[in-house]
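Sequence only, no structure available. Ideas?
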Amino acid sequence: MIIGIDIGSTTTKAVSADSGRVIDKIKTKAMDAVTSATGALGKMLVEHDIKIDQIEKIMITGAGSTKIRNDLFGIPTEKIDEITAIGVGGMFLSKRENIIIANIGTGTAIIEAKKDLISHLGGSGVGGGTILGLSKLLLLTSNFNGIMKLAESGNLNQVDLLLEDIMETDISFLRREATASNFGKMLDTARHEDIALGIVNMVYQVIGMLSVFAARSKGIDRVIVTGNGSGNQIGKEILSFITGMYGITFDYPTDAEYTTAIGAALSKTAAPSPLS
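Reply:
I predicted one. Tokens follow.
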């Protein structure tokens, strides 16, 4: 059995895998990387009744993995490049071997994954961290669930300048309800709900368009969305709107938030060479 651990800035995910199959998965939160990694491993052992001698190896990845300098609990522990882990995990979950992945976390990474090669095409500092930071400033809250609750009843017409505000008809393939400028209207009557939706809309539009550019540059018509931001229902609706305009489909595999941990666990037998 191999344990894959993705040590993020606040959330750590761990999965167990055996013979190329993912068996169990867990998630923990801690600000300290060592506490996070050992806590995730301990939780995996206790909750799923795994004995230490059943574990052949631990594969760690993510921002916090650089803080782990020794084997965990005496189990051989190796680091794997995060881009490689995302690529391996994305191919496994999507059951595809030639894909573009948009991995949405604190920021966003755009990755091309093939059976024999995984490359980092680029990315953006715009992601979940952007939503939290702007909401703390503009809405005086950084509670993610609370922000999403506000956004559910928001009205973009209060904050975004739309094409219909400046044009009487569609422009080429762009629909009149498409955004001309994020926060380009910002009416005095805008409520917190409207601002929350404006923030989420801006972040996912940036992610969506980066994904479209990446997919088109590689002649691919779909993007696999992974990471913590893959399960956001409002985000999915925004990306669906982009699909309608640009013809690039966004797919959300089951367990997408565990993609990196899964890739780490499976990388022993499937680790294409990364390019950066």
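Residues 192-217 form the longest helix (26 residues).
Hope that gets you unstuck.
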